[in-house]
C-alpha cells in the first residue's frame, strides 16, 4: 500500500510496466477470471456429485478415507466461487490471484495427465487433441486440447494479477486508498 | 513485489480457502441433497476401471494371432472381478416379467431423481446412490422382501449401479446372492424398445 507512486515512476521504464500502469491488463484479468471462476463455481456448487465423479476420474486422490475426496468435491466449488467474487469486487484481490494461480498450476497438469491417460480408451481418441472429456471445469465434456490452451491463458492472466501492483479500477472496497494515492502521486489528468 | 505484499497475498489466499471450506461444509450439512462425507461412494470402482482400460489394448493387438484374441475376448468373459452378479438384458427382461407378478423381484434405479422422473423401468424403486443413506429406510422393506434385486443406472460408463449394489450388501445387509447389476442400464433398455415409466410414480 506504501507503493502508491509506483505507476508514475514505472512510466517509461519498460513496456510491460507501462502497459500495467494503464490498469487495463489487470482489469481484463479481473473480469475474465472473475466470471470464469464464478461460473465454474456456481455450476459445481449446484451439483457436487457430478464434480465428485469427475474428481475420481482424475485418479489423483486416494479414495480412502472417503472423507478426503468427498470434502474436496464439496469445498473446491465454494472456494472457486469466493475467488470469482474477490476478482470482480476487488476485495481480497491479491489473495484471489494467489489462490487462482495455485489452483491453475495444479489443475492444468492434472488435465493434461487425464487427457494422456484417455488416449486410446476409445477408438476415436487417437491423439491428445482427439480426447474429449469432462475435466470438471463446470462446462461438461470438452476437447482436452482446447481446455489446456484456455487454462494456459487463464494462468497467464492470474499470474499477471498476482505480480501486478496496479490498483486502478479496483472495486469500491479500496477506492479511497487508490484515489488518495493518485492524488499524492500528482496526477492532474485524473481531474478532467 | 515486496516480501510483505507476498506474505499478505498468501494470507488472503488462505482466508479465501478456509472461508470456502467453512461455507461448503455448512451448505453441505444443511442441504437435503448434501453428500454424506464419510460414505465411500466408489467401493468397487477400481475393479471396473482396470477392466475397461484393458479391452482396447487387446483390441489394438490386431497383428497377433486372431484366433487367440477371439478365444480370450474379455467381452465374452462373464466372470466379473468384483464378486457382484451381472444381469444381461435377457435376464433383466425375465426379472421384469417377474416383478410385474409379485414383489419377489424388484428393480432399483441408482440415478438422481430427475433422471428417474424422465423415465425408469416400470416398478423400479428409486434409490439414488449418492443419497442412499438417507433414502434406504424408506425402501428397506421392499428390498428385504425381494429375492432378486436388479440395480441399474444409465449404462455405458456409469458405475453407480455397481457401487450401490456393493453397498446394498456390505452396508445395508442385504444378501449378496440376491443382488444383480444390469450393466446395460436404462439406455440399453430403451434402445430395445422395452417399457419405460415417466414421472415420479413407480
Walk me through the structure:
- The complex is a heterodimer of chains A (192) and B (202).
- Chain A is mainly alpha-helical.
- Chain A contains eight helices and two strands; from the N terminus they run ααααααββαα.
- Chain A has one domain.
- In chain A, α5 crosses α6 (93-118).
- Chain A is globular and about 55 Å long.
- Chain A starts with 5 loop residues before the first helix and ends in an 8-residue tail after the last helix.
- Chain B has one domain: Rhodanese-like domain (Oxidized Rhodanese, domain 1, 3-Layer(aba) Sandwich).
- Chain B is built from eight helices and five strands.
- In chain B, strands 1-5-4-2-3 form a five-stranded parallel β-sheet, sandwiched between helices.
- In chain B, α5 links the parallel β2 and β3.
- The longest helix of chain B is centred in the first third of the chain and has 28 residues, at 3-30.
- Chain B is elongated.
- The interface between A and B is large, with 39 and 39 residues.
In brief:
Helix content of chain A is 66%, strand content 3%. With 192 residues, chain A is mostly helical.
Name some characteristics of this structure.
heterodimer; A: two-stranded antiparallel sheet; disordered C terminus; B: alpha/beta; five-stranded parallel β-sheet; 8 helices
Looking at this structure, what is the CATH superfamily of chain B? Rhodanese-like domain
| Rounded radius of gyration of chain A (Å) | 20 Å
Q: Segments of chain B where pLDDT lies below 50 for 5+ residues?
A: 47-74
Question: β content of chain A, as a range?
Answer: under 5%
Q: What does the overall shape of chain B look like? A: elongated
- H/I helix tally of chain B: 8
Based on CA inertia axes, which overall geometry of chain A fits?
globular
Chain oligomer state: heterodimer
Q: Give the structural class of chain B.
A: alpha/beta
User: Alpha-carbon distance between the termini of chain A?
Assistant: 25 Å
Low-confidence stretches of chain A: 1-10, 175-192
Q: Would you tell me the structural class of the helices and strands of chain A?
A: mainly alpha
Helix content of chain B: 40-55%
CATH fold-level topology of chain B: Oxidized Rhodanese, domain 1
Major β-sheet strand ordering of chain A: 1-2
**Number of E strands of chain B:** 5
Number of domains of chain B: 1
The major sheet of chain B is characterized as: 5 strands, parallel
Count the DSSP helices of chain A.
Answer: 8
